[in-house]
Amino acid sequence: MKPRLSFIFILLLLVQMRAVLAAPANCLRYEPETVTVTGKLHRETFPGRPNYESVANGDEPETGFYMSLEPTICTVGDIGQSEVAFKSVREIQLVLNKKQYAELRPKLGAVVRLRGQLFSAFTGHHHADVLLRVSE
User: What's the pTM value of the predicted model, to 2 decimals?
Assistant: First the structure.
């Protein structure tokens, strides 16, 4: 049984390595690398706790800032990590502190260019596949 599990593990590792190596050179890497993205800044509200289904039915509203990317981006997955490779990302969720929210609020609806570190969604509070932790 152990040799079979080892074979399966090695096979999965090779498949992941092939996906990373086959990614186009212009795809963006996840944190800790710093990247720059350009897109239209907007605000969205999604249902939060307790059921993440409907604000009208009592779930807490979760309002955040997002970017509709121009042009779309692709990301490179990391072997052994939870970061997923995506071919065509059109929308990212921004992770901001209070000061950054205040600075960006007047720019809602405008095309902005932001720098930061990308990571892929991993909780119910993440409403886009890819998020950008914006640098100061």
Answer: 0.76
